[in-house]
């Protein structure tokens, strides 16, 4: 009879460990030591149980398997929660509810003063407190490690206090700041009926702007014409129709990229586009650009003492007001700067080395982050010339002024580090009803020292700090050659969330919404209408034309999409717009007796205008008038004394058979 083996009884601790391993195997594929994410690896973030803010508040022992199982189940459900900003159709991100813990709870943690990054070679930890877990879709992918902050709170040099734990529970409902009121982005009712390029553009360059330009330009023309003994056609006063034709030439030269060519080359029959000659003569175009003015010269000096932008302020403000009232932006607005290249004399010319033009006039703009529509703009006239409240930074002033029309709509503003600051984010949230996401400079006094440290930190790591209103994100990119850190502030995000690209959700959101102004600036440069000039008001005026073309094209495109109709791409749109602006003026100058026959034919052909025969008010005789007197031919030299009874069919000038060409109306 075989001897029975003695029975080995398990201790309570061993039973709990077995139960924990079984429950863990059901929920996760692998357990890693405080892993965060790798931007190049395709993985999903799985929160670790046992690290909730109130881990000991429900009466369970932290080490029991039932407590761990309950926490794991709850956090698995939370990981698929949709974005907190309800109206924003952003990507669904995995939300981490695991919070940093003190290194004292983890005996294996290295002893560093402020941060505890896990070692890349560390084996899976057996201690359950202070560890993060993540399901990995590819076990061979490399994993970056989270920066575990040592303390529960940190204070900056200015006394601003941050917490290492979120101040809002991930299980609560969407914050009120992220709930958008109902609205429909796109053209307003005033702009929704514009169905042609010309109508869309003239919504922005309305009659009031054209009349202002014509009034003050004619004063300058009179002053210039007084210098000549004879006032030729080139020196005549201008009209609104001719001014729109001038805009049409600038727009057409922009879409053809002729704006930097000389006028001689543009008006050359062999090399230039015929539409330029159909619109006006080369001399007239150059003369109008020279005389173009936008304000009263008699009061300019007085106004300039108060406002450096006075020479063009009035039409600029009318244009910006039109931009504001004709479009409803989406939930995200971008505030950034644009530099209009200019190297002439200007009291507020700026030097920005990272811009393509480097020297020029700085405009601070607000654009829709989705459509790139220009919503508002303020010229930067210098630190001293900017009227702002005491203690208010320039970035805070410009951001609040540009978004004033959209305060208390819960929209988000995305800014770069020239604008972003902690006081601005809090001010927008508490007083203006808007959230802010933006990069921030590390030298801001509200940033604690722990978020500036990059030594001994692994590329791809991140760290979070929180207040009730803000989230501060530290990120060290994977491929940063100099380990340049990225700091962002968000009053929209409240949790340490990881997005689909395995970067912090704050960075993903910033990358998607930061390009509103930059893309708008690139569009202006690609088909720019500006010409070389020595006068800075003309530089701003060309910038207004570019902005008006882009905004009107966005109106045209969105109106066509609402009608389920096809819309023109930007270059064909600019061509159609230019021809529509030129045509009314060409029709007015067509009957002029100073135009050659070839030029009349060119105008009718290029602009699709009916021939002169159909425009004549009275038809003239085709054959010689036998009853009329003999009159000297107007085209023959006076010495020949050649007389005729033939007359031109349109202008009624006497012409001999040598200069008389009978033709049908179509051929004319």
From TrEMBL:
InterPro entries: PGBD (IPR029526). This is PiggyBac transposable element-derived protein 4-like protein. Residues 196-553 form the PiggyBac transposable element-derived protein domain. Residues 24-43 have a biased composition (Acidic residues). Pfam families: DDE_Tnp_1_7 (PF13843). It comes from the Eukaryota. Residues 21-139 are annotated as: Disordered. The lineage of its organism: Eukaryota, Metazoa, Chordata, Craniata, Vertebrata. Residues 96-126 have a biased composition (Low complexity).
């Amino acid at each position: 009879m075989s001897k029975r083996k003695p029975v080995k009884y398990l201790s309570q601790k061993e039973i709990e460990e077995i139960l924990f391993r079984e429950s863990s195997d059901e929920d996760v594929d692998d357990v890693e030591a405080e892993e965060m994410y790798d931007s190049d690896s395709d993985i999903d973030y799985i929160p670790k149980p046992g690290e909730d803010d109130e881990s000991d508040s429900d009466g369970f022992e932290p080490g029991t398997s039932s407590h761990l199982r309950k926490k794991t189940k709850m956090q698995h459900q939370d990981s698929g929660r949709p974005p907190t900003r309800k109206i924003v159709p952003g990507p669904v991100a995995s939300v981490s509810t695991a919070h940093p813990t003190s290194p004292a709870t983890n005996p294996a943690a290295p002893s560093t003063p402020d941060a505890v990054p896990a070692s890349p070679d560390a084996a899976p930890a057996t201690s359950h407190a202070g560890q993060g877990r993540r399901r990995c879709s590819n076990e061979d992918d490399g994993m970056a490690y989270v920066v575990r902050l040592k303390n529960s709170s940190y204070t900056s040099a200015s006394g601003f206090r941050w917490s290492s734990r979120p101040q809002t529970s991930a299980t609560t409902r969407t914050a009120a700041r992220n709930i958008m009121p109902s609205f429909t982005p796109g053209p307003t009712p005033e702009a929704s009926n514009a169905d042609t390029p010309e109508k869309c553009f003239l919504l922005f360059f309305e009659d009031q702007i054209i009349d202002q330009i014509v009034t003050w330009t004619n004063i300058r023309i009179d002053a210039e014409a007084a210098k000549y003994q004879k006032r030729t056609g080139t020196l005549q006063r201008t009209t609104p129709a001719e001014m729109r034709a001038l805009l049409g030439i600038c727009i057409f030269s922009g879409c053809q990229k002729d704006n930097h060519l000389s006028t001689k080359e543009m008006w050359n029959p062999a090399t230039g586009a015929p539409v330029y000659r159909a619109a006006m003569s080369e001399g007239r175009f150059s003369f109008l650009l020279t005389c173009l003015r936008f304000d009263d010269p008699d009061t300019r000096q007085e106004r300039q003492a108060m406002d450096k932008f006075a020479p063009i302020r009035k039409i600029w403000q009318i244009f910006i007001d039109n931009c504001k009232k004709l479009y409803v932006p989406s939930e995200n607005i971008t505030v950034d700067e644009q530099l209009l290249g200019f190297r002439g004399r200007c009291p507020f010319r700026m030097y920005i080395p990272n811009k393509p033009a480097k020297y020029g006039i700085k405009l601070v703009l607000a654009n829709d982050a989705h459509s790139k529509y220009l919503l508002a703009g303020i010229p930067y006239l210098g630190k001293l010339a900017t009227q702002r409240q005491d203690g208010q930074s320039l970035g805070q002033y410009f951001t609040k002024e540009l978004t004033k029309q959209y305060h208390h709509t819960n929209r988000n503003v995305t800014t770069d580090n020239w604008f972003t600051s902690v006081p601005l984010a809090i001010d927008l949230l508490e007083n203006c009803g808007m959230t802010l996401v933006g990069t921030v400079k590390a030298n801001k006094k509200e940033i604690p020292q722990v978020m500036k440290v990059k030594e001994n930190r692994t590329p791809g790591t991140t760290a979070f700090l929180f207040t009730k209103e803000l989230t501060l994100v530290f990120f060290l990119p994977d491929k940063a050659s100099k380990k340049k850190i990225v700091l962002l502030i968000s009053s929209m995000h409240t949790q340490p969330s990881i997005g689909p690209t395995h970067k912090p959700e704050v960075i993903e959101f910033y990358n998607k919404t930061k390009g509103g102004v930059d893309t708008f600036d690139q569009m202006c440069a690609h088909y720019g209408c500006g010409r070389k000039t020595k006068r800075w008001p003309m530089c701003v005026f060309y910038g207004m034309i570019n902005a008006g073309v882009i905004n009107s094209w966005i109106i045209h495109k969105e109106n066509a999409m609402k009608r389920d109709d096809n819309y023109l791409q930007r270059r064909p749109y600019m061509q159609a717009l230019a021809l529509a602006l030129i045509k009314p003026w060409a029709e007015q100058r067509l009957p002029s007796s100073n135009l050659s026959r070839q030029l009349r034919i060119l105008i009718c052909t290029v602009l699709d205008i009916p021939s002169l025969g159909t425009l004549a008010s009275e038809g003239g005789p085709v054959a010689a008038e036998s009853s009329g007197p003999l009159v000297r031919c107007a085209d023959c030299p006076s010495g020949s004394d050649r007389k005729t009874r033939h007359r031109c069919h349109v202008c009624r000038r006497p012409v001999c058979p040598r200069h008389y060409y009978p033709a049908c109306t179509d051929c004319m």
